[in-house]
Specification:
4 copies of one chain form a homotetramer. Chain A is of the alpha+beta class. The first copy, chain A, has 3 helices and 4 strands. Chain A has a 4-stranded antiparallel β-sheet with strand order 2-3-1-4. Chain A is globular and about 45 Å long. Chains in contact: A-B, A-C, A-D, B-C, B-D, C-D. The interface between A and D is medium-sized, with 35 and 35 residues.
Chain lengths: ~100, ~100, ~100, ~100
């Protein structure tokens, strides 16, 4: 099952500079072949469901190893069976309506 | 790794009555031993990370089998390593501050 | 416009014990007449859109005043025009499918 | 209070092609001066809290006027008082850690 996911990871108990932690997760997602696309409130990834979830688990584990006593994540997950649709397809679909 | 998760599943393309789909997911979570606690905007579950994620995947699969061409889910996930904390502990911790 | 909302507020830069901050927000929601229902990953509220949003803003403001340099919130918002539906209606609708 | 928000709006009861609705919201955010940045699972906006919230309300209202009986939105909201930080600052902060 193909999944498009948007992941916002917040390590708690490490102060208020989260970028070093987010950067580590970016690498985890890249190494997993999920082509992470960073935006201001999260990271988009795309791949097989199990690979997305394994990478997300790895992020939590690494952030705990880096010293975060708590990790709180918000994930938006989308799957569909009616057609193949990539992230770029989704964005292009909206943009085509904007141009008209 | 123990996880507390709050899951809001929205099947798309099935009209605007979602309760039959949510009910199916409740059963999936119950069968997985995750003790689902339904609220007005989602369901709380608690268990081992992999079991939570396997149940969530099962929900997506079943909703697709029931005819939903798309399924969009929002998940809040929490893990912590500094102490064992159940969902009831979390709620009790807030409530104790309310009483004071 | 009536809104049902589920709000998870995370103050950052204040350590990893969040319950004092969540408790303050509970009081803000109560004082606003939004009948907050606390669960393990957030708080359900219900009321007029503008009142819900004003209370949410008040929470952010108070948490900053309490010393949190950053506040990150996840909100699930639902509105509907086809019928009046309270939070209890939503939950009852799912539960009726579970019993059958 | 300055806010950075990431908004994922799902109209229900309108089939499974959501892009016309998302496009309308993009225009609402643009017209409000919130500089929407579309990604595969939502739209990033940035501006004064009240302006962000007014635009979000306007989206719900318009989607209902377009025929959606229900609208479900997930919003990630961030405010901070320790420093001025734009969306580009946030992204640049993570990317600088990736390059090292």
């Amino acid at each position: 099952m193909h999944a498009i996911a948007d992941i916002a990871i917040i390590p708690l108990g490490v102060g208020n500079s989260l970028s070093p932690y987010v950067a580590v997760c970016e690498r985890v997602f890249s190494d997993a072949g999920l082509d992470p696309q960073l935006h201001a409130n999260g990271t988009n990834v795309e791949g097989e469901w199990d690979e997305v979830m394994a990478a997300l688990r790895r992020c939590h584990e690494i952030l705990h190893e880096m010293g975060a006593p708590r990790v709180a994540t918000n994930v938006r997950l989308g799957t569909r069976t009616d057609k193949k649709q990539s992230r770029n397809d989704k964005i292009a679909s909206v943009k085509s309506k904007l141009d008209t």
